[in-house]
Structures are given as structure tokens and as C-alpha cells.
Design a protein that fits this description.
Structural class: alpha+beta
Helix content: 10-25%
CATH topology: 2,3-Dihydroxybiphenyl 1,2-Dioxygenase, domain 1
Order of helices and strands: EHEEEEEEHEEEH
Largest sheet: 10 strands, mixed
Number of helices: 3
Radius of gyration: 15 Å
């Protein structure tokens, strides 16, 4: 039997990203459903330059507690987070020791970069969304963002839990 190809996705995501048309409604619904509290709502204006899909301004928050972290994002109608749903699965997020190398490996396996921050050489760095037909979008976030993420969601994010913090 052939062994599966080892990829940057063969580990536990550190959060699940959900898109929403109404952040307050999603917060209330998901909080009650999963019994979690939430970080304060944060407005992100798209401070970092990205390539690919439109980042635009977003409003977002993160769950505090629970066995699986959630990020809930409300974007504009033109953004990659556009939806008319209260909560819709958007991505699985993974921490990455080398975003550029992980992106290259996934692209070689048929994934495409949907949005990313890039370095001066045009190589994905810090953050990337990747898509592949028939698969859930994935987010890769540089390990260097882990401390900032832990400050938002609280101490004690397990080291083996993988993915990204909202840098865009």
C-alpha cells in the first residue's frame, strides 16, 4: 500500500475560520451553541499588502476556550469572506515554520494561492490562503505570530495546535 504524501496539512489546525454576514449574531449563536466566550471585536483595515483576492476591511473575533478555537470574520461583499449566512465554514488554519516553503509544497500538490502577504521577492510570507477544488480553504500563518494570537485568545494554546492569526 502506498503511503500518503506528507503535507503541511497533516497536523491539527489551530483554529477553524467561519465567515459571517452578521458578526454579532454569529457571536451570540456560536457562543450559545459551543459555550465559549469571545475576544473583543476587532476591525482590520487590511494594513498589510496582499496579493490575490481582495482583503478589504473586516470585523473579526476569536473564541476563548473550548476544545477548538474559532475565528469569525465579517467581510465586505467584495471580499473573500462574503457570505449571506450567519456562519459558514471558511478555512482551517495552520501554524507554519516557513509559509513560503509550505505554500510551494501545497502548490505542487494542486493547491492555488488565493491571497497572501509576500516578501520583497514576491514569495508568500507571514500569511496565505490556499484553495483547491473539492477542498476546504486553508490558511497558513507564520509561527512568529503565535505570541500575538495567544495574547488575543489567552494563554495555553497547545504547541501542537496549528495555524494562523489575523494579520490582514
Amino acid at each position: 500500500m502506498d503511503r500518503p504524501v506528507v503535507t503541511p496539512l497533516h497536523r491539527i489546525p489551530y483554529h477553524v475560520g467561519l465567515a459571517t454576514a452578521d458578526l454579532e449574531r454569529a457571536r451570540d449563536h456560536l457562543g450559545e451553541l459551543f459555550g465559549v466566550e469571545w475576544s473583543p471585536i476587532r476591525t482590520v483595515e487590511g494594513e498589510l499588502t496582499t496579493v490575490g483576492a481582495y482583503a478589504g476591511p473586516t470585523r473579526r473575533l476569536h473564541s476563548l476556550g473550548g476544545p477548538m478555537r474559532m475565528e469569525v470574520i465579517e467581510g465586505t461583499a467584495e471580499s473573500v469572506w462574503a457570505t449571506d449566512k450567519v456562519a459558514e465554514l471558511h478555512h482551517y488554519a495552520y501554524w507554519s515554520a516557513d509559509v513560503g516553503a509550505d505554500v510551494a509544497q501545497l502548490v505542487a500538490l494542486g493547491w492555488a494561492v488565493e491571497m497572501a502577504t509576500v516578501d520583497d521577492d514576491g514569495r508568500p510570507s507571514v500569511f496565505a490562503y490556499l484553495v483547491k477544488p473539492g477542498h476546504i480553504r486553508v490558511e497558513l500563518l507564520d509561527d512568529g505570530q503565535r505570541a500575538a494570537y495567544e495574547r488575543v485568545v489567552g494563554v495555553g494554546v497547545p504547541a501542537d495546535v496549528s495555524d494562523a492569526f489575523d494579520v490582514i
